[in-house]
Amino acid sequence: MTYTLSLNNILDTLYAMAALHTLTTDSPEPILDPDRSGPVRLIVRNAFADVCLHLVRHIVDCNLDGETSSGDNSETPSADDSDIMMSLTLALPRDFNPSMHGVLRRNLEQAVALTALSTVLFSQNDPDRAYQARATALTHLATATSLLMTNFHRIRWI
Question: Is the pTM of this model over 0.90?
């Protein structure tokens, strides 16, 4: 099954997390600066690649806007705010519940957003928040991985 993630949707999640932090601490969050959108977009793409590496055992193919496993590496970073579609095709277990596709996709988006946020926080010399964001990203990845594993509870032992 192929899951396509929108860079702009992930950015919206990332910016919402940063805005929420600003509201709770009264300190401006530098990631919200519109002049930094280019570097933040690159960080999100790198976070997507990191998430793909965590799920490599389950990945059939992945595409980072032209960078596919088939060898096409036409990297053309977007200079504007156009959306970039990042996709990964996952091998699903036979007993995968189709109603969980949305849950899996959302956990992938959250993992990418939180991995990117962790990178930004490390760059701002805020290791405590960075580790917290990374731990939460890993929780989303663990949830995604558990959805991709065969559900042994459904096997009937005779």
Answer: no
